[in-house]
Amino acid sequence: MEKFSRNQRIAAITKLLVENPSKMVNLNKFTEVFNAAKSTISEDVVIIRDIFNKLEVGNIETIAGASGGIKYVCNSSQEEKNKFAEGLCAILAEKDRIIPGNFIYMTDIMYNPEIVHKAAVILASNFNNLGVQYVVTVETKGIPLAYEVAKMLCVELIIVRRDNRVTEGPTVSINYVSGSGRRIQSMSLSRKSIKRGSKCIFVDDFMKAGGTALGIIEMLREFNSELVGIGVLVESTENKSKLLNNYISIIQFNGISENGSAILVPSNNVKK
Amino acid sequence: MEKFSRNQRIAAITKLLVENPSKMVNLNKFTEVFNAAKSTISEDVVIIRDIFNKLEVGNIETIAGASGGIKYVCNSSQEEKNKFAEGLCAILAEKDRIIPGNFIYMTDIMYNPEIVHKAAVILASNFNNLGVQYVVTVETKGIPLAYEVAKMLCVELIIVRRDNRVTEGPTVSINYVSGSGRRIQSMSLSRKSIKRGSKCIFVDDFMKAGGTALGIIEMLREFNSELVGIGVLVESTENKSKLLNNYISIIQFNGISENGSAILVPSNNVKK
Questions:
Q1: How do the pLDDT tens digits run along chain B, 272 residues long?
Q2: Is B167 close to A112, i.e. CB distance below 8 A?
Q3: How crowded is the C-beta side of B178, counted as CA atoms within 13 Å?
Q4: B54: how many CB neighbours lie within 10 A of its CB?
Q5: Taking a C-beta distance cutoff of 8 angstroms, is the pair A10, B11 a contact?
Q6: Nearest CA distance, B34 vs chain A (angstrom)
Q7: Could you give the dihedral angle defined by the CA atoms of residues A161, A164, A167 and A168, in that order, rounded to the nearest 10 degrees?
Q8: CA of B13, closest CA in chain A: separation in Å?
Q9: Do A19 and B14 touch (CB under 8 A)?
Q10: A32: which chain B residues are within 8 Å (Cβ-Cβ)?
């Protein structure tokens, strides 16, 4: 049977781990593919872990025991996080992004895989140890970000709908008051989507007063499930009466300046 | 300045390439980070490319010239593709997936990052050489898959909406006839979202007669842009009068059997 060099094994193991964040991989998988002893694979993994730690690009965790293995846990360096948040503030402060109603046009940002991936690494690195089963979002703009966070945590994504579609079977619907607009809105979710007794985090593109997040808490209660964390790309500080105070954001939106561009700064939890 | 071993460089280069599919990376980036000669980095890349090719898990392409560099292009082996399509057929044939109206419940599949990632690699590997600028989808269920395909191709995602939201500025709306249901539906897209003269592919979860895809072609025409490919996870063969015939799918849905479960087979373009 063919033998592989250490260089070859390291490239292949790195690829498999990085493509499957937070997924536990048993070392036997590698001993079979590479026809190598477990001790040899363990040495390969130590090399990968050391360079990831040195460059501050995540960690390889080892879980001992028969059902154990290794998993890649995403992270980025503090310098990278700051650079990303500052770069995003600069992009969103472009004047032509202000659209009628004093909204910021950020659809292109939310649908740009490179930006979404980096933002998801920052958010997910805050939720790695919560033991959640689902990442929840409300359609539509936050879906790619929530999907990437779910991927980083190796859990399923749940998308709460604004309507109820025939192709999802029986649904649970609730009404909630949007905290900023004071409008009554509704959201619905398929009965089949969440196992009872689950822990979830909520991920979205933008948070104003937090009314949507409160709606999610109420929705999860219908599934006997619990919200244990909230992560958003942008939080608005204009709505002083935040209905929630346990959340993380990457940047803060502080209104529109006199010259007509958005005032944005990296959030405190990013620039540690 | 610190020196890195070949093993260390290979782990770090592999990680960066795999996390940024289809993105051109200049070798100078690595010579700086690793304080190594360009020839040394080139040798590292050859090792990575060889093992990726040997294991059939994608390719590293080299583009010569001053503005050139290397990029990781995703792919999976024919064996992996078949195994994935067959596994998916088995999951979707579970009896309790049939919901009123003879729909298949596949929301959990479309929101499962591991499944979505594998499906996206299969679809994207068919579109690598089309030189597209955008991956287009219609909300909601196909968004994670379309996002992953966009990520694999290193292009932006475009989500066509069923309504028009205030936070996206001026929009273009069109009406279209759904090919299977013969219902009139509408879709809208922000004026800002697509640069004129772009090439796009359309990605969705499920295709019946192709009415939505025709709507997308019409929508893109409003932006002087062109649809050059269509990829779906599941195509229904029940609607014989397919309005389009240039598309790829991963599995085919052939109706509901007498015992009440869905009849599904891998598509021809997957089992080559």
A1: 678 999 999 999 999 999 999 999 999 999 999 999 999 999 999 999 999 999 999 999 999 887 789 999 999 999 999 999 999 999 999 988 988 777 889 999 999 999 999 999 999 999 998 999 999 999 999 999 999 999 999 999 999 998 766 567 789 999 988 766 667 889 999 998 999 999 999 999 999 888 899 999 999 999 999 999 999 999 998 876 667 778 999 999 999 998 888 999 999 877 55
A2: no
A3: 12
A4: 12
A5: yes
A6: 11
A7: 70
A8: 9
A9: no
A10: none
Question: In this structure, which amino acid lies at residue A193?
Answer: S
Q: What are the residue ranges of helices labelled H in chain B?
A: 6-19, 27-34, 38-55, 78-92, 107-110, 113-125, 143-153, 211-221
Instruction: Work out whether strand A171-177 and strand A184-190 pair parallel, antiparallel, or are unpaired.
Output: antiparallel
What CA–CA distance (Å, rounded) separates B194 from A108? 10
Whether B192 and A144 lie within 8 Å, measured CB to CB: no
Distance CA(A120)–CA(A203), nearest Å, equals 9
Q: Which residue of B has its CA nearest to A106?
A: B168
Place of tokens 């980095």: B41
Size of interface A-B (CB pairs under 8 A): 174
Nearest Cβ partner of B105 from A5, A19, A168?
Answer: A168
Q: Could you tell me the end-to-end alpha-carbon distance of chain A, in angstroms, rounded to an integer?
A: 51
Chain A closest CA to B248's CA: distance in Å? 23
* Residue A66: CB atoms within 10 Å: 6
> Are B140 and A151 inside 8 Å of each other by CB?
no
Between CA B102 and CA A82 the distance in angstroms is 50
Which phi-psi region, left, alpha or beta, contains residue A65 (left: φ > 0; alpha: ψ -120 to 50)?
left
Nearest to A239 by CA among A252, A223, A220: A252
Distances (CA, A) of A4 to A7, A15, A37, B141: 8, 15, 12, 41
CA distance to partner chain B, nearest, from residue A66 (Å): 24
Pairing of strands B103-104, B98-99: antiparallel
Q: What is the ipTM of this complex?
A: 0.94
